[in-house]
Queue: 3 jobs
Job 1
Amino acid sequence: MEPTTRPQATVITIFGAAGDLTRRKLVPALYNLFLDKWLPERFAVFGLDVKEMSQDEWCLRLRQGVDEFSRQGKADDAQWQSFAAHLDFMAADFGDAAAYTRLGEQIAAQSKEWGGEANCIFYLAIPPSLIETIVRQLGQAKLSHDREHRRIVTEKPFGRDLDSASALNRMLIAVFDESQIYRIDHYLGKETVQNILAFRFANALFEPIWDRRYIDHVQITVGEQVGVEHRGAYYEHAGALRDMVQNHLLQILCLIAMEPPVSFNADEIRNKKVDVLCAIRPILPSEVHHVAVRGQYGRGWIEGQRVNRYRDEPDVAPDSSAETFAAIKLFVDNWRWQDVPFYLRTGKRLPARASEVFIQFRPVPHQSFPPSAVVDWQPNRLVIRIQPKEGIGLRFQAKQPGQTMHLSPVEMSFCYQDSFKASAPEAYETLLLDVMRGDATLFMRADQIETAWSVITPILDGWEAVTPADFPNYQAGSWGPEAAEVLIAQDGRSWLMPTVAADAENEPS
Ligand code: BG6
């Protein structure tokens, strides 16, 4: 789509400019926005890092990142050069006040050159331990004071439990106003996640049946094939519940369960999402083992390759208790969802990279057809495919062709790629552009983060109190531990196979 209005002049300051996030995600996203003419005509990217490196070394590193990770493939020399002319690297000690004075002077000089007050975004692409130092320094250097033009972006993890997240919020809010703070959950920037809102609230068809009267249960699966890779040190203190459920999966649940917003205003949408989190039935300590299952991968096979167990990954303890898989059952106690279970599961080293939401409808109230007509009777099901093969599928019963009445399930399918042809922007492109525009709809407000932590706190506490005796308890390349099957089977249901995995199983070998 052709850009309509570009954001106003912007300086983006990245703290952690030599880090992985900058190279893999932020700069490829900025570069794509530049190519697609979404960036402001007047923009500058200031990169700050404790690592000493020259401007040329930094630019080369970023260029390699773009070549490797950009959705648009390798950069063209001339286009890269014109983008790189906006980049400026500064080695800086994040605890040194002088660095912030210098940064302030540079921002002021840039604004002056552009002839007006530029928007200024401080992007914290750094480990959580550095957040406080940087935020306080920004405050002391008065770089946070202009409420209209200054914004700060924080990455996850946002705290490691409710107390630390609340403390982080208090510290941020002492320096920046809530309206200036953009807390990233990159799942919210994914096209298909945003499309849940469009699907639900731009169509009249489904909303009347989107409740406990017609929906039997909801499943959210976010499966990853990759292991913990080089992030063992972080993951040892996180685990799947903190890393994925507290943020990405609960946010998807909110979009599925929220009430229709009155407008597309950031706070209105976030209010409706917080309402869902507040309505999630608190888990009693005695129930934890009944509604939550954890797992850790052992050795196994992924796409014909032998892979290590989690405990053999770099920076992981040989007796680690970190969970690489989590499955939980939640209820949303309100008029719409009372007693409809929401089953959530996520894990690393599962058979497929697949994120899907299944809305399983109830069976028809009365079966008019004789049993002989029904070859494979299955209730209606809606599948929202977040990734890959982004799209939506609706399963319904159809008559098989022929002179006799035989029914079987068929799928009506919408696929992004086929319908829209154009490739979708990466989540970070959408989110960075939204920060430049000052639109916080897809970002987490303080209360959203804290309420999400409260939801999982009883599970965190319950798990921390007991060392898992059976780890590793699932093979890499399987769908998780046996106990996850039991979690859902005890309700007379089973996990639904994500589309890519089902397709792979049905492929002739
Ligand atoms: C991140 C987690 O937030 O999301 C990672 O920290 C995980 O552990 C990643 O791999 C998954 O994101 P995506 O976009 O690849 O599904």
Job 2
Amino acid sequence: MTGVWHDEREQSWLLEMRSSCYAFGLADDAAAVRHWYWGPELPRAAVAAARAVPGRWEEHLSLGREFPDEYVPWGGLRYDEPTLRAEFADGTRAVQWRYSGQRVSREGEACVLELDLADAAYGLQVTLYYRIYDGFDVVERWAAIRNRGARPVVLREALSANWWMPPGRRWRLRYLHGGWAAETQLTETLVGPATLVLESRRGTTGHHLNPWFTLDPDGTSTETSGEVWSGALAWSGSWKIVCESTPAGRVHACGGWNDFDWAHELAPGEDLVLPVFAGLYSGGGFGAASREWHAWQRAHVLGRGERSAVARPAWPAPAPPTSPAAPAAAAGQPELQPVLYNSWEATGFAVSEDGQARLAELAAQIGVECFVVDDGWFAGRNNDRAGLGDWTPDPVKFPRGLTPLIERVQALGMRFGLWVEPEMVNPDSDLYRAHPDWVYHFANRTRTQRRNQLVLNLARPDVAEWVFRTLDGLLSANDIGFVKWDMNRPFSEPGWPEQAGRNPERIWTEHVRNLYAILDGLRAAHPGTDFESCSGGGGRVDLGILGRVQQVWTSDNTDAWDRVAIQEGFTQVYPAQVMAAWVTDSPNFLTGRRLPLSFRFHVAMAGALGIGGDLLRWDAAELAEAARLVATYKEIRPVIQRGSLYRIASARTDPVGASEYLAADGSEAVVLCWWSPAQLGSRLFRVRLAGLDRDARYTDAGTGAEHLGAALMNVGLDLPGGGDFGSALVRLRRC
Ligand code: GLA
């Protein structure tokens, strides 16, 4: 049973979860909170054995302290990465605190522990939060920092949590890196004596690294076996995760807001709530860790908004709903994602009412449920040099506004969706001409453009309010069921000259806090509208944004073979249902690769299926095949989007890539396989399934053949093989 056990005599806490637990306790006469244990389930009677005994760690270390501290204020003999650095008005730059109290509360299916610490001299208080959930092994950690003194305190670093690994092993760090069109590539390194920093300094989550990691002892865990510790941050701005091994060989990973160029002046009376850094332990290898992340996100993250307990309220106060409410999601489950069509690759900026209507007709014909008009619809937007900021329909392309197209799309039985990039402005726009001071900039410095655009200073309350009102107006005036929210460039010259000398460095975090508040306000005012997060492809994918959007755009790279690797990385942490994947034209616009239509579908069907090709150029046979595959996807969609994902073969290391999705009740399994051209004669391949009932019989819906669960798992399923870039979709139903 999930819960928090507080042993008053030992002054310790034990977080008891489904199959793991987490323990810590007070030390140094309640002046420190020491980490004790994180790993497989431990009986209460054994917890004291894990106690961090003073002297055991630090005695022989002449260079500094070696305490496994739960949350570490910088000060004293401390040389590894701290979690909090603060400067007081009199110049003191160290925090010294004492434990001052605790509370445990129930929030539905979650249990929350709050631990209060207070600085003896300065009125600075910190509350450490721990939230655990019935049926899960995820611990959500964050902190709130409060100034109860009379003078401001400058925070120079404020990370959300510090995770300690068990001692004495050779740890391997796995993480996701990438770039535009090459997101979420899985990579790894051993943790040696040098500090490893995963981070973004770009103002957004970024393509280069994603805020997630796994650590496994000895570097020997596999997809199906071994111990895995993993962490993921709920933050969509600049972030960092520091993984290091201390001189005594203890490995820890701490993370949260990036302190690069950042500072926050905490005014008297002010509370600063940090984002959640979630962690989990799994004894079942990387696959089990991923399934835990997926299931927990489906149950407790997607669409749930802010993760930290004391959230900034949705801002501005939400207006009453103007759109019909979305149909209630089935029993606590997020809704299934619709099959959507997106016009970007087909039309680029050459958008017109008539052209979009013709695409919409074909999209409806093949079974699309949501038709999304991408970039190019708004005033002056004929290329990427103008228009961003002027969010009204282009009078030349849409002389009658968007309503006629929306009505046409709805008459075809689809929802209407629209692309926006609200945090941006082109210098060639009415908005910039009216408000050149609304962008991040430094006096006497070039305003560096990227894709001909500048970043709006969303930290400014007036700019944030303008963004909210503009989007609220757009959604109120038009029946828009889906918004693709893009963010196509990182920050540069992150200045706010009007605030010079008044802590302008807070823009790094204020931008994202206001972005979240705007999204929360829009979601409250327009509950019938779904959102997709995009940032030049998959540049803004993290647990923070996933609380506010239904799906994310995985990558601008729609080459299905490249996507196999991107999707394998993506699903390490994020669930299939949020992974938007389109079927586009062949040859692919980016890689020039030609792939069969069925292959392109089978790859996109592994996530939230969309169509992004120029349907006007697809012949009747292709449209018919597309309609058949869309219909199949709708049948398997509940299993793909809500089932458990087993990555049963990896295209990085095996001749094929294969994913199995298993329905929650075990009644159905869907296997998707993709293979590259045969090499050196190796053609036939067998994939072994997972998670089935070994004694049950399963019918292959395609061939009618019956297989025993044990045979499917131990012997495997023969793939047809052959052909360049072949693929297969196998559906198995338990008899
Ligand atoms: C970004 C997105 C694309 C598309 C374009 C439009 O690159 O990732 O999907 O929306 O912007 O300009």
Job 3
Amino acid sequence: MFFSNRRYNIIIITFIALLFIGSVVFLGARSNLEVQEIFEEQYTEQQTLNAKQISSGVTEFLNEKVVALEVIAGAENGVPDDFYMRSFKALYERSQGFYALQYIDESGTIVSGYPEDRTPLGYNLYENNMDQAFQKTKSMGSTYITNPTYTFEDELAMYVWVPVYSGNDFRGTVLAIIRIEEITERVIQSYDSSAGYVYIIDEKGKLLYHSDNPKETGKNYFDILNEPDQDRLYILGEQTEGKEGMGDFEELNENNELEEKLVSYVPIKWYNQVWSVGVVTPVPFITSIVRSIYLKQATFMIITTFFILFFTSLISLIFLSWNRKLEEEVHKKTEQLKNSNQRLQKLNRVKNEFLSMVSHELKTPLTAMRTSSEFLREEDCDKETQKEMLDLIIRNIDRQSRMVDDLLDISRIESGRMVFKEEQINLKEIIDNAIQMMEPMATKNGINIESELDNEPRVKADKDKLLRVFVNLLNNAIKFTTNKGENIKIKTEENRDFVEISVIDRGIGISENEQDKIFDKFYQVDNTSRRKVGGSGLGLAIIKGIIEGQGGSIRVKSEPGVGSTFTFTLRKWEE
Ligand code: ADP
């Protein structure tokens, strides 16, 4: 039963432990997913923010340039060539980022510019068929920007045309050439694109900037992309339409493996130009950041699992040892029960034996009394014989009433009804008294009784009952001393609160395993018919009851064939 209980406990504990570990792993895995989602979301938002920053950076940079150009073009004292020379030089030096500044008069001829080496003076737009933007600015009457094209020095640049008026008369245009690289270097260099790349395309899809691939600028981005997937084409389409958004696509990386990428794109709207900036990050880069969070979480899960295992094993051990203790306890109690049962059985046997012995003891004197009485009734006998008969009857009556007294006493002791008087007793007196009473029996058996007293101790006890203790102990000592000529000795020894009294004989002795039983009621070492001496087996039980009832104790020391010493204690009389 205990075995199966223990197994049951272990199964429950293991189940609970697994449940805990399962929950930890499940929650851990779930939160990992959530963390990844949240992180990706946050990362894309951050990416969009970066794209917006680039977009507004470019716009701001260009606006600043145009405002400065419009100030020069709208000046009252505009038009003279030397004015433009000075203004252009000042602007070129103050506001960094211009490639060249030129003034083209109303006939379409470059008449002034800075730096001089980039100014083809006398170059006529109409003659060279380069007059479209000039015409457009003239007809619009406002600033006009051409799509990025190459300069004479083969650099991708944009051309800003600002019309010049004198009153209402058109007097030509101020033309500023700004290299794309100049813009991106100033605006994008602050953005750390180590994780991915940044690119800018115009509304026709021309690649104006690519942080990873500067050589490809100026080409159409659709053409140079290596097998773009549908998602990418869609995103680029959105970009050329000037829309804002985010998305993901797959692209071959430098190891020629398909890699998922996240992109955020934001338009750069400026005058008649619509460009779009895209910020791209490879998903594995984001995952690698999340992985460090995973690692921490995994460590946490392992530690938690370890703790769960540790505590459940601890609980299991406690349970097991608790069970073992319970088992031991039950085993001990079962043993105790078995012992008490055996004792009870033995007591019952003793009681039965006692009953038959009591009947026998009661019957023997009755038979003697009956025979003597009948003899007295029938026979005509002389006075001497009559006296003898009557003495015999009286002795037997005494023997019987002693037996009945013993039975009554033991029942009083057991029910706690025995009353003890507290008298001051001179031990010498009472011992002498007892010796005197037992002397005839001792002499008859050829035994001498002597006493060896420590001063004349006085004790607190019930006199009659104490006399009975001495008489009984002496009676036993005489009864169980078979060799004639032996001595029985009574000795006293005073302690602090007690007096120890010993009755010492050199009789048959008691074997060790009988010694603690002789104080049980009805117990006799030899209760068979071979027993030569009489007795009920109550004597020592009554003595023990009397001694303990007065706060003392009794013990025996004995060796078979050597003799016995019964020692008991009595409380000293204190004045
Ligand atoms: P009983 O009436 O049979 O003497 P007790 O209770 O006085 O009963 O004694 C119990 C048993 O203890 C006796 O039957 C006897 O076997 C043993 N006994 C008691 N006193 C002595 C003694 N002085 N020497 C040896 N055996 C003794």
